[in-house]
């Protein structure tokens, strides 16, 4: 009976294992679906619309084939189209359920047809590599981008170098869901039945062998007689008895079980999650507080990954400019007050060997991001970079048009530890106009008001607007002025005078709104330090002051000198209806210029 059960187990195991293997092979079907796209016209760029990529479920794999290196990048569709405004390109879109390709002509601003045609023929190509608009980019000879999962509003740009024709053959591949949830159970069940059959077979053999042993009751055995070995021709010695059946069969048992174990191991190898039924329920997301953007609000200018890459590029390029003492190279990534202070530093370093360079632009980590929610240009974002150990740096970066790089315009050390009501990076913030009347003070008036506080202290009419307790910069300016004036009066009070005056800087303020109708505002304030003689015979000499003499181009003057320090200041300005005061968040101060008084 045991042999019958063993045979039945073997048969069932073979059927189950065969069915499991068949589900993973001949019955499984294709694992992917591909769409080939071929361009009939040579164009320098191809815009592969995100609708084409999302026309089938699952992640996408993009392959582009052509001569030489191939460039591909993905980003917002509106940004790519804006970047391609002045270029001819092929737009691959979805027309119903089929893929359609349309060549978009280059847009020009002129109304003269002949001029437009001439410009189109002589328009130079532009490499898309390195643009700050892309969320990510790839360069390969045989381009293959796997596991793309672009959300709505995202597309892919494919090109060579902007001059040569773009790859004419593109292939998009999607995975096909063909899970075989019963393949795994069938293989495992078949392996278990095979093991059961082996056990039943061994037990059957053991039972048969035991049944052939000596019995207590039975017919009498015939009388045995001794054998005369000497009569055997050629026999020598004594013939030993044959080994018992138990000894012969004892070495065979391992060879019976080993194939079953090996077969099970082979069957279980390669069983992925698709070969098993998913019995567990779908995970339930944990609810978190969210911020809903207004319907009229546009998309944020950058994502966190994009901002991190931009800040890294700015840091690298400015570091190279610092090393080369090259103001033109710095201007590729700096503008406004951030560029002005470095131009002055480069001039001083070229003339004074002991002059120290300005602190390097930190590259990360990015701890706070507040991008402007705006689809047009110029667009701005605020970033806080650094940590508690290295110190935090606050900065504003602006992109003037789709073809320009983001440039750092304002930078300062973050001095405040207050938690501000900022919108999350995926929502962004609107830019506040300079004349906004809903803030405690309009951004365009903030610099002059704070300059008046620096000049007059608590006597200023604007003193009550600012939080003095959190303003370490104001305290430092007051102490520095008092110390410098005391040192000057020890030797020069009889023949000269030293005065200080703060005025609003010439740079346009930058402001981004917060959640409670406030704003983060960056402004500049110029601190002028003027020293001049008080009698006609006195002369101001710059002994031991190579900085002022280098910038002014003089070593002495009968009229005196004016030295200007530039302050980049970051404030949190609450709403007019709020009871909060304006809070200084961060600042930086460096020398800008020195002139002879005319």
From TrEMBL:
<feature type="domain" description="DUF8094">
    <location>
        <begin position="299"/>
        <end position="595"/>
    </location>
</feature>
<feature type="region of interest" description="Disordered">
    <location>
        <begin position="109"/>
        <end position="131"/>
    </location>
</feature>
<keyword id="KW-0472">Membrane</keyword>
<keyword id="KW-0812">Transmembrane</keyword>
<dbReference type="InterPro" id="IPR058407">
    <property type="entry name" value="DUF8094"/>
</dbReference>
<keyword id="KW-1133">Transmembrane helix</keyword>
<feature type="transmembrane region" description="Helical">
    <location>
        <begin position="255"/>
        <end position="276"/>
    </location>
</feature>
<dbReference type="GO" id="GO:0016740">
    <property type="term" value="F:transferase activity"/>
</dbReference>
<feature type="transmembrane region" description="Helical">
    <location>
        <begin position="182"/>
        <end position="203"/>
    </location>
</feature>
<keyword id="KW-0808">Transferase</keyword>
<protein>
    <submittedName>
        <fullName>Glycosyl transferase</fullName>
    </submittedName>
</protein>
<dbReference type="Pfam" id="PF26366">
    <property type="entry name" value="DUF8094"/>
</dbReference>
